[in-house]
Amino acid sequence: MSTRDLVVLGTASAVPTRARNHNGYLLRWDGHGILFDPGEGTQRQMLHAGVSANDITCLCLTHFHGDHCLGVPGVVQRIARDGVAHRVRAVFPASGAEYWRRLRHAAVFADTEVIDEEPIAGGEVRIDLPGAPFTLTARRLSHGVESYGYRIEEPDGVTMLPERLAAHGVTGPLVGTLQREGAVTAPSGRTVTLEECAVPRPGQKAAFVMDTRVCDAIAPLAAGADLLVIESTFLDADARLADEYGHLTAAQAGAIAAAAGVRRLVLTHFSERYPAAEQPRFAEEAAAAFDGDIVVARDLDRVPMPPRRRLAPVPAVGAGPV
């Protein structure tokens, strides 16, 4: 059975707390696992979450501040120690290549050859992931150092309607032919088109937006996302600090989600300045602009992708509702 969910490994910003580890987010998608921003302690958090190095097929860093990358040595060494056999793509800002090299080879260990490095540069970058059922795109954000956000997008498809197929006598291998070729000759001799037996199925989309102030690159990353994982380091009272340090507030995250038509909003990357009693305020401030589903992430949460959007079938020509 396919799994599409977000395993939250850490939710703190620069300073971890007793309740919040440094960043770490594993997006699981039909057998693929994209590990975003493994901060310090990620390897141990993976054990607590019940996920392993074998679940990782891609490692994406937004930037090279420590809370987003100090877990790289442990994760890489775990990939080696556990004998991960599949290729693992490592994506990171090219401007931080020297930091990547130091992290990648931070200690003496029996190394692995499965990691394929892909430094990225430019305003928008398409990352090729062979065999993945989605595309991965990065866009340059606005932070104190070069930082990228990521978008995962599945191609649109169709959902077959069994009652329509049966009505047209399209069964067995003919169904596959109809899906591949768009039309098929039914046993009656009539040509049946895909549009008569299916409805469009929008591909699912997820976005990961870490350290940034409000900027133009966020909108295309978040547009129509089923799941938006976004930093909300500050509350609105500290909006000046957020802009100064290149971060977002919970209210800004909510406004971004509303404008982008997001379905599920995951707030994370919380400053240590806010005690646990203030955590509900993050959801409250985001909800002032966004009326969709809001998750204030906690360490070791599992956040499912929302169910697929399902479009209602168009009534068959000359027939009542199907």
Blueprint (SSEs and pairs):
Layout: E1 4-10, E2 24-29, E3 32-36, H1 42-49, E4 58-60, H2 72-81, E5 88-93, H3 97-104, E6 115-120, E7 124-127, E8 135-140, E9 148-153, E10 157-160, H4 162-167, H5 173-181, E11 183-185, E12 191-193, H6 194-197, E13 198-201, E14 205-209, H7 218-222, E15 227-231, H8 239-245, H9 250-260, E16 264-268, H10 279-287, E17 293-296, E18 302-304
Parallel strand pairs: 3-4, 4-5, 5-6, 14-15, 15-16, 16-17
Antiparallel strand pairs: 1-2, 1-18, 2-3, 7-8, 8-9, 9-14, 10-13, 11-12
Helix pairs in contact: 9-10
Domain Metallo-beta-lactamase: 19-123, 199-270
EC number: 3.1.26.11
Family: Belongs to the RNase Z family.
Describe the structure.
This protein has 322 residues and is an alpha/beta fold. 24% of the residues lie in helices and 26% in strands. The protein folds into two domains: 4-156 and 202-304, 4-Layer Sandwich (Metallo-beta-lactamase, Chain A), CATH 3.60.15.10; 157-200, no CATH class. The chain has helices at residues 42-49, 72-81, 97-104, 162-167, 173-181, 194-197, 218-222, 239-245, 250-260, 279-287, and strands at residues 4-10, 24-29, 32-36, 58-60, 88-93, 115-120, 124-127, 135-140, 148-153, 157-160, 183-185, 191-193, 198-201, 205-209, 227-231, 264-268, 293-296, 302-304. Strands 6-5-4-3-2-1-18 form a seven-stranded mixed beta sheet. A seven-stranded mixed beta sheet has the order 7-8-9-14-15-16-17. Helix 2 links the parallel strand 4 and strand 5 (88-93). Helix 9 packs parallel to helix 10. The longest helix has 11 residues, at 250-260. The chain is globular. The model is unreliable at 318-322 (pLDDT under 50).
